[in-house]
Fold these 4 entries.
Entry 1:
Amino acid sequence: MICSNCKKNMATHCIEREEGDVYLCDDCFERLGAAAEYGAEPDFFVSFLGIEDTKERKCPVCGATLSDYSATGLVGCAHCYEAFGKDLMPSIRRIHGKTAHVGKRPLWDGKLLELQAVRKRLREELELALKEKRMKDAERINRDLRDISKMLSGDFGGEEDE
């Protein structure tokens, strides 16, 4: 029996499904086995991503081809993005909504961290004002500290950090 996915190698694995058995070679089973077991057709990623592989180009570093990506939805290495960039970007944009990694951002676009830094600075000022017996300044700083603490605990539902 020939592999249902690559249609090149002899199949060594059989996945039984209601729609019919899927036969996979060792390589395809390693890459696609779980997806095939849970109902995905061997060419599932090809139809979903809309990639047509007219040339069998290979990544110069890992040797992965665009059809490997089409079959599994996974690239072989970071250099695959350079080798197949023009073909990969439309499907990446369709799936993720953008093609550039922007990283994770703290809540409120950094306002949380800013408020925590201000609170820390105010605590230090309060300590200094109390040591120097500047009670009016200490009172003002204490009010500011309470306001910041209310904002932090009220908006996030937790207790303030010490």
Entry 2:
Amino acid sequence: MANKHYNITVRGLVQGVFFRASTQQQARSLNLTGFVRNEADGSVYLEAEGREESLARLLQWIKDGGPPHGRVAGINVEEGKVIGFTGFTIG
């Protein structure tokens, strides 16, 4: 089964609530690769690659609010070209 690549922007209360660290932990537990970073507009941007089932589980975790103190108000997902990341990092 081929890997997929998603570009994901998350809006809401997603900075200052350990969203990046929690996303990294969640992604690694799902054997996903990519990165997550804060954006200047208060959103969080991530790119994740892996099996479609694992990506769906990550998206559901985000839609459910992410970490305990996170509040997700919106999420935008676009499929991209697989890059071949070797780990999941925080930017």
Entry 3:
Amino acid sequence: MKKIILILIAIVLTGQLYAQRRSTANQQAVQQTVVKFFDALSNRDSVSLKACSTADITLYEYGQVWNIDTLILKAITLNQSAVFKRTNSFEFINTTADKTVAWVSYRLQSVIFKDGKQSTVQWLETVALVRERKQWKVKHLHSTLIKRS
């Protein structure tokens, strides 16, 4: 009898562990905008990067305040490596969205291959987005470097 009760408790607890709240369509759209933003960085595509951003975007990176021109200069223009590949993976922690404003926090890991060397960088980031013409755009991004190897 004790074995049956223990098995039932284990089954119930296992089911609870895997029950996760599903994201709404609006939350998924917000998360997809963040993914597209970093895809544009990975592809060194300034046009797509600007399309995912507001005109007055601010980025808080390494204790500095950047705008879109600073980001493009540091991540695209100065990155002239002939062999470059960046693969991003996200662990979304929280996404909150209403009709016009959204906030998302996530862990980002990027595996970067540049000039024959591979490195892995991990950040904890928070992004504020606004809805412009029915499209989510990154307005503020705050990044905290966790680990670089």
Entry 4:
Amino acid sequence: MARYAAIVHWAQNNTQYDSAATSKFAGGADGWLVAYAAAHHAIVVTNETPAPFAKRDIKLPDVCTQFQVPVCNTFDMLRSLGVTFSLV
């Protein structure tokens, strides 16, 4: 809970983002996801791309970077797990 509070506090006090972005972030699941991953030493998997200079949207990879939570995309995850697909 403390990690989630820190994440939301960071988002709400970050002057880079407009009020609509912080409201959307506070009402969504991304903050909870990053807090859970931080608490359990997990990796967040997302297809979002970082947008460190965005004003209207708080991107999941940017939050992960801010809180030193590892993040990767779906394809990197599948590759690291050795998943292969084949036509039968």
